[in-house]
Amino acid sequence: MADLSLAKSTTGTAVRGPSFLSMLWRDKLAFVSALVLILIVLFALFGPWLLGDLATKQNLRGRNFPPFSFERGWEFFLGGDSLGRPMLARLIVAAHSTILIAAGTVFTALVVGASLGLVAGYRGKTISQVIMRLADVIMSFPSLLIAVVVLYVLGPSIPNMTLVLAITRIPIYLRTTRAEVLEVRERMFVQAAIVMGANHGRIILRHILPVVAPTLVTIATLDFAFVMLAESSLSFLGIGVQPPDITWGLMVAQGRPYLNTAWWLAFWPGLMIVITALSLNLLSNWMRVALDPAQRWRLESRKTKND
Question: Distance between the two ends of the chain, CA-based, in angstroms?
Fold first, then answer.
């Protein structure tokens, strides 16, 4: 009896795998990337509330004030812009609009694209062909070209930019979801649910979507960086977010005329874009392995080697 209890406890210990947090801790690059992204999200949430007035207050005496000096206070440690506004405060406040546009775009594209992909992959050939031709039409035009035309017609603003960027990203999620559903719907557990009389909505939401979701989350993490770079490109071209709103891309565009005399005006926002995009890419690579049961052993085996 004691041997049986010991066997059960041993089996339970062996089956139980490490948590996602512990696997993230073992991958130092992914862990640091997650901390950086959390810090940026905190900036985006609380930055306008704490430093909104400081980021917009002009002081011509501090015009193009050089960085790495506490002569005018901690807020000017990264220098001042062409109107004497502290770069540090503006970087933190600009994170709000940058993250808001990227998050809104990715969420909208993910919901719409995944919904259409689930329908296209699960339903009949006619509905699938109609949806896929719609995706082909969107993909036949360069995404930045569509954004430039639409923003020129509708006017540059945060809602318009979010909408147009979301439209250009929908085919990515649609085609990926459809490809995954075409494979998952032939698996045994889905066929068993059909035989037992489950309705289509329950099969899609309870059996197919949980299998497809990890792939979509990984793509969304990677796509977040692409959308942020696209927004920065549009703001750099002058058709993105307009003052008094600020984004990192707009700050790069405003600092372009001063590259020879005040390099920090464009360098710091550009550095924030690079750091955020790099962190998202590193975290996306980790999530691709961590969320895939067939590859998760690569992360779990690190504990075994260390032990």
Answer: 30
